Amino acid sequence: MLCVADTALPELERRYESYFGQARHGRVTRFDRANVTVVAASALAGLLPGERPAILPAFVAYAVAVRDLSITERLLRDNDVPVVRTGPAEVFVPGAAARGVAIIFRQDG
After folding, report:
1. Boundaries of domain holding 25
2. Average pLDDT rounded to a whole number, residues 52-72
3. Inter-CA distances, 32 with 17, 23, 53, 61, 67, Å
4. Residue 4 and residue 42 in one domain
5. Domain end among 59, 75, 91
């Protein structure tokens, strides 16, 4: 997940579309031929509560698909790793606990 200043988002979307194909816009921007999600800085807290990049632009998170999210979440919590639930099929470890970049765990499938 790449976080950019709100004012930089339109130009970045245009440029990335030339690399990765058509973009799907909304709260975040996703591209047809890439697993890159672009989010405006003003929308980041809605996706990853509490996350704030030190500088912009910045890669602020990456996602990992897991077979069983409840087992993953329990394993993290049992090892005193902070976990934030962002939906029924997703949790994340805050960047402060993960060397500066949040780790999103998503239920596979």
Report:
1. 1-59
2. 95
3. 9, 6, 26, 19, 24
4. yes
5. 59
